[in-house]
Amino acid sequence: MIKNGLRVGLRILFKYRLYTGISLVGMAVAIASVWFIANYVTNSYRYDAYQDHSDRIHRLSMQITAGGNTDNYATTGKPLGGVLAENYSGIGNYARLTFQGNPVVRVNDELFKEDGFYAINPEGLAVFTFNFVSGNGTAALSDPNSILLSRSLAEKYFGSTEVVNQSITIGDHAYTIQGVYEDWPKNSHVNPKALLHSEGLASDYELQEWFNLEHYTYVLLDGSMGPKDLNNQLAQMTTEHLKPGLEGSGVDVQFRAQPLKGLYFAPALIDDVPKGNAKYVYALLFAGVLVLLIAGLNSINLSLTQSTQRTKEIQLKKMLGISRGQLVLQSAMESGIMTVLVLLVAGILVLAFTNTYFQYSGFQALDVSGQWLLLLGLPLITFGFGLLGTSYSGVYLSFSGNLVHSQKSSVNTFKKVLLGFQFAIAAIILIAKGTMNQQIHFMKNKDLGFSKEQVMIVDLPEREDLKDKHIQFRERIQSFPTVQNASLIGGGALPGEDNGKELFQVMVNGEEVEKVFNFYRVDENFSDLLDIQMAQGRNFEADRTSDQEDAVLINQALAQSLQWDNPLGQTIQYYGKPRRVIGVVQNFHNKSLHNAIEPIVFLYDEAYATKLLVKTAMANVDLVETAWADFFPNTPFALSHFDQFIEAMYTQEDYLAKLLGFFSLVSLGLCCMGLFAIFSLHLLQKTKELSIRKVLGADAWHLVRTTTRSYMGVAVLAIATAIPVAWYLLENWLTGFSYRISLDALVFIGAATLILGMSGLTLGYHILKSVRMNPVTSLQSE
Angle, nearest 10°, between helix axes 409-445 and 700-734? Predict the structure, then answer.
């Protein structure tokens, strides 16, 4: 019986192969898309799940309030972890990770410029999970000259993981490798490629150590208390160990615990690690569900349409004595066959696009860990959609007592409702895609207040013995005729880069108050190179030694925040030394357009330069690299482009826009394929009627209007429903940008025109065939 049912099911699917093919392709594309999306969402929400004690690990953040400004830092001072673990209960251990910048590593005679190097206190190895493939994890980092490497780095340097007791040189310091550990997975909030030894803190530390914010501090709770208790202990520790030294300073400090599990989606703090955006993940998940829903409704609609042609078949089977149970079973078997075919094609699509997905996300699409619910759910959903579609012919008609059964108008209405719902979803996705493209274009092309074109960023060596060569290197670069300008800047002085903030003393309404401002260390060429205009006063000048000792520049935002109508000549104290404001630069965007422009203080200081900005055509890279080899022969040359750096700030928006573009094409394609199949059957049923109308003198326009009016009306109604929904959703999304576009009516009109146009083309193909058909031939066939 089952064998016969399978044979009949395959025969029916092949007989109606147009509907079968459209439904199969639509569902397979939707299932493959949902698989990729679910994999991405699952991995995003499993950040740091690799850690064995992820539920008990907390990162400590620091909030500093001074001069009415409050700033929240992801980094803390060195004493925090040790003081907390030594003096308070409930702390199993603590870890202190200190980023080491971009060190130059020498292995034998090869040089490598690396990132992802951290220093860690030996106790920190007990907080995090390190699966050692060689070496002794328990004794690791016991020596200040020791280092641990990740598997990928060990294989990069030596081609093997058996490298214990081998040596590498960082700068001028030699380190002995004590162990190799497995790389942490991509969904880890930090990815340490190498770990160096970090010394503990002496008991007689100074107050300033609390404010050298260079360390990520973590604690591992012993299970006797939770996050609320930890925050209470942090408050107690602050009162007992820190606030006595801050009395009368006007500075207030608070520490907060951030659970490791929620760290990836937590709001970004100053000097934080890369973050995810939960809203974008939700949007991606929502888009996937909508595409699956469109494909499912399309499948149901096609099955309902197909059932019109199967009415006589079902009634004949009933007349021949086939029971209702057999008809229902046959319906279920058809759905089962279709489910297997859909999953097979979807699996092929997943395999075909696995590498592409990995390049975009860094996740493995075939990793099924944690996705057992999806593995079970997708086949059930596919089978469910199929069963809902075949239930009309397999269940409803089998229970009908009429031997002659005509399709009720309610079924036609239901099909049009489903089709309208599909078009409404497609319209929302198209409008979202268009609006997102406009916002991204706005962000990439808005006047940021500086020039980003033809600017190269050269990372300078951070070794103390090479700092004197920085100015000489800049002068060599400036001497090239093809170079327009060159400027030395300190860390964080690049627009768009996270920069440190400093505490300043300023006069407001005749009173001295403390304020925290963004802090840029620059030279005299910075403003000219980036075309940042002066609003008042003058720029730094190299031949005025006083500019380096007692002068500052500020931006307009700072003058406005202090309500300085005449900022020139005002005094700003930095580390107790008064400096006079000699110029005010026009506001420029120092961060992405998600953020408002912030107050900035500029100091003329070349001693702490970490980057050289070079304005020249990209064809002159070889000149810069040649000069680099003369000054820094033992340091790898590293160069990036400023315009690409700025664009990288909107990577998440770019990815989301591309995905929405894909989903908009899929959703619109599915809608048109469904409309194509449904309307083809509609005209098939109307063949005799249309032929009679033509014989009676009806023209082509009358035939078009008669047959398409109801279907185009469905599309128009769907668009009218989608517009307010899309407007509401996109207004909410745009509120996340400090600088944004206004919703453009042309985007809504464009989406409506595209949907109506594609629908018209789909319907027009069939109408053209019907209009050209000889009515005599069609009436004879009837």
Answer: 50
- Residue pair 120/141 in contact (Cβ under 8 Å)? The answer is yes
Is residue 164 a contact partner of residue 180, using CB atoms and an 8 Å limit? yes
Structure tokens that stand for 187 in this block: 């969904």
Sheet of 455-459, strand order = 483-490, 609-616, 455-459, 639-641
Query: Do 9 and 333 form a contact (C-beta atoms < 8 A)?
Result: yes
Contact yes or no for 746/448 (Cβ under 8 A) = no
Q: Which helix (H) or strand (E) element contains residue 111?
A: strand 110-113
- Cα Rg, the chain, nearest whole Å: 34
Distance CA 201, CA 208 (A): 13
Q: Are 527 and 536 in contact (CB under 8 A)?
A: no
Q: What is the pLDDT of residues 673-691, one digit of tens each?
A: 766 766 666 666 666 666 6
Distances (CA, A) of 183 to 186, 358, 362, 430, 600: 9, 17, 14, 40, 39
Q: Which spans in 594-741 are helix H?
A: 621-631, 642-647, 651-685, 687-695, 700-734
Q: How far apart are CA 459 and CA 471, in angstroms?
A: 14
**pLDDT tier, 458 (very low <50, low <70, confident <90, very high otherwise):** very high
Q: How far is CA 638 from CA 79, 112, 488, 523, in A?
A: 34, 10, 15, 21
pLDDT score, position 466: 75
Helix (H) or strand (E) holding 59: strand 57-66
Q: At how many degrees (to 10) do helices 409-445 and 651-685 cross? A: 150
Task: Report how far apart, in Å, the C-alpha atoms of 140 and of each of 135, 282, 467, 617 are.
Answer: 8, 42, 33, 48
Four-point Cα dihedral 176, 180, 185, 186, nearest 10: 30
Q: What residues does 73 pair with on adjacent strands?
A: 62, 270
The Cα-based distances of 604 to 522, 541, 553, 724, 777 in angstroms read: 5, 9, 9, 53, 90
How confident is the model over 115-162, as pLDDT tens digits? Answer: 889 999 888 898 999 999 988 766 677 788 899 999 999 999 999 999
Cα 65 to Cα 102, 243, 558, distances in angstroms: 31, 13, 18
Spatial contact of 449 and 586, defined as CB atoms under 8 Å apart: yes
| Least confident stretch, 301-305, 454-458, 622-626 | 301-305
**What is the rounded distance in angstroms from the CA atom of residue 681 to the CA atom of residue 687?**
10
Q: Among 606, 446, 582, which Cα is nearest to 526's?
A: 606
Which residues lie across from 445 on neighbouring strands? Answer: none
How many C-beta atoms surround the C-beta of residue 623 within 10 A? Answer: 17
Question: Residues with Cβ < 8 Å from 717, sequence gap 6 or more?
Answer: 420
Inter-residue long-range contacts of 760-765, CB under 8 Å, 24+ positions, other chains counted: 760/708, 760/712, 762/672, 762/675, 762/676, 762/679, 763/675, 763/679, 763/707, 763/708, 763/711, 763/712, 764/704, 765/676
Residue bearing tokens 């058909």: 773
Residue type, 606: E
Mean pLDDT of the chain: 81
User: Which of 195, 40, 53, 31 lies closest to 122, judged by CA?
Assistant: 195
Reading the block at residue 417, the tokens are: 């409702």
Hey, how many other C-beta atoms are within 10 angstroms of the C-beta on 8?
Answer: 13
Global pTM reads 0.75
**Nearest one of 389, 382, 412, 362 to 302, comparing CA atoms:** 389
Lookup result for tokens 């086949």: 379
Contacts of 582 (CB under 8 A, 6+ apart): 537, 538, 540, 547, 551, 552, 553, 568
